[in-house]
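Subject: for your reference before the review

Hello V.,

The reviewers asked for a structural picture of the protein, and I figured it would be easier to keep everything in one thread rather than splitting it across files. Below is the amino acid sequence we used in the manuscript, unchanged from the supplementary table.
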Amino acid sequence: MRWLVVGACLAGCQFRAGGAIGRDGGSLVVDAASEQPPPEGPQSDCAWTYTPANFDPCMLPAPGTMPSADQTIDTDNLGSLPAMTSMQDDGVTLVVVHLVSLEVSGGWTITGSAALVLAVDGAVTIDSGASIAVSANSDDPMACTALTGNAGTNSTADGDGGGGGAGGAGAGNSGKGGNGDGSAKGTGGAVVNGVASMLSPLHGGCPGGGGGTDNSNGTPGVGGAGGGALEISSDSTIVIAGEIEAVGQGATGAASAKTGAGGGGGGGAIFVEGASVHLQIGAVLCGDGGSGGDGGGSTATGAPGDVSPCNDIAGALTMSQANNGGAGGGGGFGKSSNGVNGVNAQGGGHGGGGGGGGAAGWIRLGGPQMPTIDPGAVITPMQ
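And here is what came back from the structure prediction:
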């Protein structure tokens, strides 16, 4: 397959059938020809008009329905929903729920440790004002190891500051943790390099690293959780006027003076594919990273990190404290998919380092036709 770079016009351009456009080294893939149609000839009743990613329509249970209003879906406890569960090659559990059609009119929250696919035979509509929040999850630790933020180290003498944890990586690199202050200071967690992904297998983001302590004393910050993973696949039309968010969470700040903060969680994954896909004005697809926490000062605890506003012009930020701990780094977003480095503790105060920001995650749009993206639709990250 041939790939071209998708530039900054994504949020203001319309893409129609024509060819594959994407970027195999970044966070967004717009992919119109990767799912080839089934071969010519007699087809079974279960076959779709194109071959979806991550599941076989002919292996699914009979389809069911879901209410459109507010609800929580726990991928670890789906109750009576018609679902199939499998283990992907990367060790992440995949749950596929088979539906007749899908409308989201209220606020949905998706929780649990598995990556979720909503496989829909008919039309999909996410109404204006509706939202799907794919909460930060805890993917199989074996699958997350390579992208989990590195922890900050402890100081080696009482009274010196611990290092901040690095953010979780994603499509971009994590932010490095800031160093503590003092002659025996702890150092911040090192940068973790991000990876390109076509989201097949489907996976979410990974957590940030924890902070270091004042020579094993005190309580440092904890890394933010990585964003979850959601795929919506339809053999018919998909029209999105609402929001889908799979953001990394902000880290906790240092819970004790002179300890390091946690790193922000890496952004998650959103994969939308259909016979046709239309993002209307007001639609938001967001997989941004969370920000790192603030390091503890000489006498003060640190402020926590935050989640992204998902507006493609700003990412998650941490308010820097006035005491002498290091400030947390911002999360990756928009065209800046890398997390921002945490700040070193200010000299002379023996504070802890700030946590690094989590990198942005992955967004993929697919199907047999190029999607239509109206001006005013927001995709972040979009690199």
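For the response letter, the relevant points are probably these. Helices lie at 141-144. The two ends are 19 Å apart (CA to CA).

Happy to draft the paragraph if you're swamped.

O.
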